[in-house]
Specification:
single chain, alpha/beta, Rossmann fold, pyruvate-formate lyase- activating enzyme, 2 domains, 7-stranded mixed beta sheet, 40% helix
């Protein structure tokens, strides 16, 4: 039994997903043969995701060529067809997010003539099952978690058994769609260790503050205890609870984490580790202290983690510093307290955010702040509330994304109901977001504010009138932006 994974990815988006190495490990553990077709190094965009972040001053300039990484010159669809012909898989498994659904469809059309069963999975499938299962090139979809469902499917296929009753799967059969119920959520402590072999070491590199480093991701657990309206995690939690599958938010135990880290560090020798957790510090301090002590003694690799300002305490940050935390990422998303609470369901005051990040400053851990502009009903003034909050924060780098109304989120439903967004509009990753039809602020104005966001944050208000001109994508606006871009890079990207 051979399984070929297809990973449609945004061009040169270097973050390696943990779910494919995990699914690969689950299948290999049962003796199946696995291979991967990854689109990351194909030219599918005019400019890569990270290079666009460089242009927006969110990322220090870097050079992938120093690690021998270049775009492939061959045709992506022809290469996929050749891969299928050579590997001769019994099953093709494609993972989908909304951003890459369009690319995925073109790939599937190219290999449809091989008549090999195709199963699609991923968060986009879970929230858009009808759209995906009705594609002519898709034979099955996996709702929710795939580790146990995919293994059971492959076991039944390899033994020639009927697989139409496998839980979590929707299956086309005899002109109908069989919709099986969801199974209980997996025990994350019993899953096999991640298999990054299917990607290869070259794929592990990522630009980080001007350097190109080999980075591996370690799954801390699943889900998030918070209920943000723009995130799919809260909806997954509700879905699984309503279906009686269990509690989606789960954490791995310290023994399990350390064992996996030791295995991955020994096998892949990374420069850096990312703890793949939406809210790293949302854990009891005793648990964090135990992890930190063992990490210091047994792992000793610089790491990066993501969390929220409201999870910060001095005790936890002190533990992170001793543990060897090299960088952090905080999502504040919006700077207006009332808007943040009412629209995003993010609570806590601006003062609490600023004070929390002062603690991080005190322990000299560099960090990045994530912001989003273009939320439904947002105005220019509200965006400047976010700019003002960032001006009070001493972050090393700043990200400014445009709101993406992803299917499955509360705000997606809100945008559909208000007519700001239509079913077929789609999104194109977080730098571009979605084009909302709002009277409060246009998409073109959002793009201009995104480009100048960091300039407004870093430069004196006396220079704001000139920076405002740089919001326009005309000759004068581009000239002024390039002037400030050079100053910014010389000052903040030393």
């Amino acid at each position: 039994m051979k399984i070929l994974f297809i990973y449609p990815n945004i061009m040169l988006d270097s973050l390696v997903p943990v779910h494919l190495p995990l699914l690969s490990a689950c299948l290999k553990e049962k003796g199946f043969e696995v291979d991967l077709f990854d689109t990351t190094f194909y030219k599918t965009e005019e400019m890569s995701f990270d290079q666009r972040r460089v242009e927006l001053l969110q990322l220090k300039p870097f050079n992938l060529a120093e690690k021998g990484i270049f775009l492939k010159e061959s045709d992506i669809c022809d290469d996929l067809a050749e891969k299928v012909a050579d590997f001769k898989p019994d099953l093709i498994a494609i993972t989908l997010v909304e951003d890459t659904w369009k690319l995925a469809q073109s790939l599937l059309e190219k290999i449809k003539s091989f008549n090999i069963p195709v199963i699609a999975g991923g968060v986009f499938v879970t929230f858009s099952p009808e759209e995906v299962i009705n594609h002519s090139a898709v034979n099955m979809i996996c709702m929710g978690e795939g580790e146990e469902a995919l293994v059971e499917l492959c076991q039944k296929m390899s033994e020639g058994e009927d697989y139409s009753t496998v839980k979590n799967l929707w299956i086309k059969k005899d002109g109908k769609i069989i919709k099986n119920s969801l199974r209980p959520l997996v025990d994350v402590n019993k899953l096999p260790f991640l298999d990054y072999d299917i990607f290869g070491r070259q794929r592990l590199v990522r630009p980080m503050f001007g350097k190109v480093l080999a980075l591996i991701h370690v799954e801390m657990g699943r889900g998030c205890p918070y209920q943000c309206t723009y995130c799919e995690s809260s909806q997954l939690m509700r879905l699984f609870q309503e279906e009686g599958c269990g509690i989606y938010y789960r954490r791995k135990g310290t023994d399990r984490l350390i064992a996996e880290l030791k295995y991955l560090v020994k096998k892949y020798n990374p420069d850096y580790i990312n703890f793949n957790s939406e809210t790293f510090l949302a854990k009891p301090v005793e648990e964090l202290r135990e992890l930190a002590l063992r990490y210091q003694e047994e792992i000793k690799v610089p790491f990066w983690c993501q969390t929220r300002p409201e999870t910060v305490t001095e005790e936890k940050i002190k533990i992170l510093k001793q543990m060897g935390c090299n960088s952090m990422n905080f999502g504040i998303e919006h700077g207006n307290e009332e808007f943040r609470k009412r629209v995003l369901k993010r609570y806590g005051s601006n003062r609490q955010i600023v004070e929390a990040l002062k603690i991080v400053d005190q322990y000299e851990i560099p960090y990045t702040i994530n912001n989003i502009v273009g939320f439904p009903d947002e105005t220019r003034d509200l965006i400047f509330d976010t700019i003002e909050l960032n001006r009070q924060i001493n972050s090393r780098t700043i990200n400014c994304y445009i709101f993406a109304p992803y299917k499955g989120t509360d705000l997606y439903k809100y945008c559909i109901e208000r007519g700001y967004f239509k079913e077929g509009d789609g999104v194109h990753h977080v730098l571009d977001g979605g084009r909302l039809r709002m009277n409060t602020v246009s998409y073109e104005e959002l793009k201009g504010l995104q480009r100048t966001f960091l300039l407004y944050v870093r430069f004196p208000k006396s220079e704001w009138p000139e920076i405002k001109i740089a919001e326009k994508f005309d000759e004068e606006g581009n000239r002024i932006f390039e002037k400030y871009k050079k100053i910014y890079q010389e000052k903040y990207f030393k």
